[in-house]
Every structure is written in structure tokens, then in C-alpha cells.
Amino acid sequence: MSGRLTIALDAMGGDHAPRMVLRGADLARKRHPDVDFLIFGRESEVGPRLDKMKRLKQVTTLVHCDDVVSDSEKPSAALRGSRDASMRRAVEAVRDGRAGACVSAGNTGALMAMSKLVLKMLPGIERPAIASFFPTLRGESVMLDLGANVQCSAQNLVDFAVMGNVFCRTVLGTVEPATGLINVGSEELKGHETLWAARDQLNELDLPGRFYGFIEGDDMAKGTVDVIVTDGFTGNVALKASEGTAKLVSVYLQRTFKSSVFAQIGYLFARRAMQKLRQRTDPRRYNGAIFLGLNGITVKSHGGTDAVGFANAIDVAVDMVREDFLERIRSDLASIDRSVPAAQAAG
Amino acid sequence: MSGRLTIALDAMGGDHAPRMVLRGADLARKRHPDVDFLIFGRESEVGPRLDKMKRLKQVTTLVHCDDVVSDSEKPSAALRGSRDASMRRAVEAVRDGRAGACVSAGNTGALMAMSKLVLKMLPGIERPAIASFFPTLRGESVMLDLGANVQCSAQNLVDFAVMGNVFCRTVLGTVEPATGLINVGSEELKGHETLWAARDQLNELDLPGRFYGFIEGDDMAKGTVDVIVTDGFTGNVALKASEGTAKLVSVYLQRTFKSSVFAQIGYLFARRAMQKLRQRTDPRRYNGAIFLGLNGITVKSHGGTDAVGFANAIDVAVDMVREDFLERIRSDLASIDRSVPAAQAAG
């Protein structure tokens, strides 16, 4: 895809909105000179800030919306009540073709519900999934579902594998991704029927790359596969457990460097290398989860992120539009028979 | 409990058995001069090694068994086929009162199946759970189930919370443990019906300590609660995902210290502090998972561990016997009404 492209932003979502949204957009603007922004939010809060950011303002159209979806709002209430919410307007801009993708750091459940309602599902996909990158010993993998579906059928898991496969090829550029299904053991008879049915079907699917089979929790960080498939409950807990452990080790490390004079001197020497390590393991690098399975591109930024993290979420949206993700997933879905045999789908 | 106590060991389970079992027992012997060992295994493989370990031999009775349960064996096959397996004999020694607890690094599924069959369940407990310690920012927490039950009812989760509470008070010495139930969000309406039913019941239970409510994956390492309750599928994946991430950060850290001459010099200064950090995060420290809910104490060591890790698993067994864990859990189970109301238990 060539020429200019437009990304819609929800200026009001996130703990530090709208400031970090505008600053994040400004960072992304420097990296993507061919991107325009369509920003939705309260004129009184966003306008004055934008006026001070001349260059960002040149590539931005600000659209005033009265409503804001709060973090505590239930998805159903947000759907009914907030017709003029910045989040909803951003998703509608994607539906109407005024933007190639939208990014919001707001309420995840509400953003998912609005995206489903406004964008609709891709043909043959029953449930959307939340996907994101996961750092591994070998680089990066794609992981899904991270929380959209707490309970999944075999068919859902197969759909996630197909969508994750396309996503991995499109955005990470992995030519033949290996896909793995999370289980409590790699043995054939561990787990439960839903997993066995999904595995059997994935063994027969003719996807680019290969189906590795079952993987375990520690295979995530090992980089055993490129696409990590699981239900939204397990995926959400495993991702957050990993984040918590990374944070724990980082605190231990800080304490270690402060534990003696020698260690403090050691830190002075190793400081630059340690800063690089911190950059590498910076959770903001992996900010930007994608809602897959919809007729349009919605990227969810972490609510607590800052401008750097939000700019990364915009990067993900730009990449997906540039690589023509939607067309590729539509054509793959049309060409692959993903149906789980009826006797197994019940599992 | 005073006087000498006996621990039964399966000499044949684990990747480095029987060598690491004997060496691990020898390490544990130094820490616990009042412990005798009852070791089950092949005389031809264990006997000559034991002959060289004079002090261990003085406190050990070796019982020859012909059979060994392999790692690939299905639990059902191990139950039927291996009547004279070292693993089974070790569990039977607990049932017959010849040992206070048994430790094995062998096939987890087979060890669980044998423990259930031989030791039987505690009154009112439907399913056993695998519990272990988890390192946190605040110290250590207890986590269960780590893989015995891939699908759990609300009643199972409530039982796990009660058993984890007793275990935490007995072995960690936490007077009033806080208990949390893993979910995909701390909000009341996230998750699914089984979790809501378990939460409602736990809110009403009169346990020592308090029920914190729902926790998320990152609360595990934060140490938000002392007892982390979840189903065996989620628990297994989350624990292994955390282990994988800790390993990933550790590899990143090694690379960082090698990345420049300055960093290498820094490492020389910080080396002692780093060694302490490595000891603190050593997975062998947390080796020794406990099967809770049985009429006897079975401790499962990681199959790939070495003598240091196996000795830690023996420590856990010794602690449980010394602290009279079985009597305490029996009395707690008798005094607490754990029943989930029928309308909810269906969830």
C-alpha cells in the first residue's frame, strides 16, 4: 500500500489521556511521515494541547465528542449509553473508511463490544481474539487469545490459529510460522477434549508453516513456536504472570546492585549495558494488542502506558494497514477449511 | 512431633536417578540428623552407591524393588502393571505407617494415581491438588492446583482454598493467610460462573485469615495474597510461563554482562551480589510440590532436578511431618463447612 494513510485515535482512553495520546501521536508522526491522524475527544481538553503541537496539528483532524467511556463502565452500558463517545467514533471512522485502523487505550471490554458491533465479524469467524507480541529467546512470537473469550470451543481455537498465522506472517514477516497450542503437557493424552479436537483439526489444516502440536507454559518465552494459541482465560493469566515475574526479577536485580559497595561500583561499569537490557525488556515495546477476527483493525493500548507505549501501539496499527492485513486474512479465511468435525466440536 | 522420623524415597524416579536421589538424601541428612530414610529401588543400582556413602547408609534401609515406572508410562498402565515399582512401594510405606511421607521425582501422573489409590482421599475432599511455593516480592506464597485437575468445579476450588490455607499456616507459618482466586480481572463480573460460585462460597467461609477475592496473573509475583487458588490447567501454565520468563530474563542478563568490556568489568565487581541473586532465584529452592487432599504425604520433586533440588523436596516432606500437617488439615476440614450451595455448584 502506498500513499498517505489515516489512523483514528481515541484521545480520551487511558490513565494519562489525553496528554499521552497526543504525545504518542507526535512520536509516531516522526516515524511515519505519511500518516494522518483523525483524533476523537473533547475539544476543550484536546484542542488547546494540540494547538501547541504545530507539526502534529498539521497532519491531524480533531473531531469533538461529548462522551467518554470510563474504565469501570460495563461493555453493555457503554454500548447503549455512549453513542457520542470518542472510542465509538474512532471505531466508526474505520467502518466508514475514513481511517485504516483505530487505536484506543480505554476500557478493553467496551472497545471489544463496540468493535464487534460496529465493524462486524469476518466471514466464518465466530469470536474475535486479542493478540499481542511476546518476547522470546529467539525474538518475538504472536500470542492469542489474551482475554476476549474466557471459554473457547475447538473451532474458536482453530480460528485463532489461522488468524495468528496470518498476523505473524503479515506483521512479523515470518514466512512459515510454527503454531503451538498451550496445554499442561506435550503428551498426546494430557489436557481435555476441546484441546484434542483442536489439535486434530490443526494437524489437518493446510496452513503456511507447520503445526507444532501442544506446548507448555515455559515454551512461550523459549520461542518454541511463532504463534502461541490458547483460550482467553489461560492466555490472559499466563501473559500477566510472565509480566509479574519479569517485574519481580527486575526488582531483585535493583536490590542486588544496591546490596554492597562492590555491586554499586559494578553497576557503574555495567550501566550502559543495563540500560540497553532495560530497553529490550521494556513492556512499552510490546504495547499494542490487536483485535483479530473483525472487519476492520482495532488496536488496544495498555491503559497505564505513556506516550512511548502509545506510539508503539500506533506503530502496530500502521504496520497492519501498510501490510494490507485485512485483505490477507480475508483471502486466507476463504481458502482454508477450518471446520472442526461435528463429533469433536462438542468437546 | 519429637523423636526420629522416617521419609520414604523412590530411588528410581527422575532424570538423574538414582544418583541424585542418594546425593540429595545425603544433603538432607546433614540438615536433619533426626531423619531416617527408607529407600526403594533396584538393589543392583542403588546398593553399590549407598555402600560408598557410609553416613547415609547408617540411617537408611534399602528395600529392593524390581519395577520402575517410566516417564512415558500412562498412569493407568503404571497402576495395573507396576505392583513392585519403587514409586508404589514408597507410597505404600506411608500408608502402612513405616514412613511419615514419601518423595519421588518420577512420573507425576503415575505418582498422583498411586497416591490416590493407596493413600485414599481425606474425608469430604473430592479431588487432590498439587501445591507448591511461589517466590514473590513479599517472600513466598502457596499456589495450587498446579496440574492435578485440568477442569475444576466451584467445590474443588473451595477445597483447594481450605487445603492451601492449612498448608500455608503449617509450613510457611503465616498466621492469617490471605487467599485469592485467579481470574482475568479483579472486577466482580469478569470470568465465568464456576469462579463466581467459588468466590461467593469463599466469602462466607470462616477460615483463619481472609479471602481477598479475585486476583490477576501479575498478582502472583507481587505477593498480593499468601494462597493463590486456581484450576490445574491455569495453574500449571501460569507457573511454567513464570519459570520461562525468569529464565529468559536470566539469559538476557548473561548476554548483557558479556556485551562490552565495561559490562564485563562491572560483572567482576558485582559477582558476589549476582551469585546471591542467582541463589535466591534458583528454581531448586522451590523444588518439592505437595499432593494435598490425601490421607498421607506425597512430595513430588521436579524430574530434572539435581541433588540440591531433591534435598529441598525432602525438606518439604520433613517440614510437613514435623508440623503434623495431616492432623491439622483433618481437624480443619472437620470444622469448616465447605459446601457450595447446589444452585451454584453447577457452574
Q: In CATH terms, what is the fold-level topology of the largest domain in chain A? A: Isopropylmalate Dehydrogenase
In terms of DSSP E residues, the strand content of chain A is 15-25%
CATH superfamily of the largest domain in chain A: Isopropylmalate Dehydrogenase
Question: What is the number of helices of chain A?
Answer: 14
| H-E string of chain A | EHEHHEHHEHEEHEHEHEHHEEHHH
Mean of residue pLDDT of chain A? 90
The biggest beta sheet of chain A is recorded as: 11 strands, mixed
User: What's the total number of strands of chain A?
Assistant: 11
For the largest interface, the chains and their residue counts are: A-B, 65 and 64 residues
Strand order of the largest sheet of chain A: 3-2-1-4-11-10-5-6-9-7-8
Organism (chains A, B): Limimonas halophila
Main location (chains A, B): cytoplasm
EC number (chains A, B): 2.3.1.274
InterPro entries (chains A, B): FA_synthesis, Phospholipid_synth_PlsX-like
Q: Please, could you describe this protein's structure?
A:
- Chain A is α/β, with parallel strands linked by helices.
- Chain A folds into 2 domains: 1-121 and 295-305 and 313-319, Isopropylmalate Dehydrogenase, CATH 3.40.718; 126-292, Isopropylmalate Dehydrogenase (3-Layer(aba) Sandwich).
- Helix content of chain A is 48%, strand content 16%.
- Chain A has helices at 19-31, 43-51, 54-58, 75-81, 86-95, 108-119, 154-172, 193-204, 219-222, 232-257, 261-280, 307-322, 325-335, 342-345, and strands at residues 5-10, 35-41, 60-64, 101-104, 129-136, 139-144, 178-182, 210-215, 227-229, 289-292, 298-300.
- Chain A has an 11-stranded mixed sheet with strand order 3-2-1-4-11-10-5-6-9-7-8, with helices on both faces.
- In chain A, a hairpin with a 5-residue loop joins strand 10 (289-292) and strand 11.
- In chain A, helix 5 runs parallel beside helix 6 (108-119), helix 7 crosses helix 8 and helix 7 crosses helix 13 (325-335).
- The longest helix of chain A has 26 residues, at 232-257.
- Chain A is globular, with a radius of gyration of 21 Å.
- The model of chain A has no long low-confidence stretch (mean pLDDT 90).
- At the A-B interface, helix 9, helix 10 and helix 11 of A face helix 9, helix 10 and helix 11 of B.
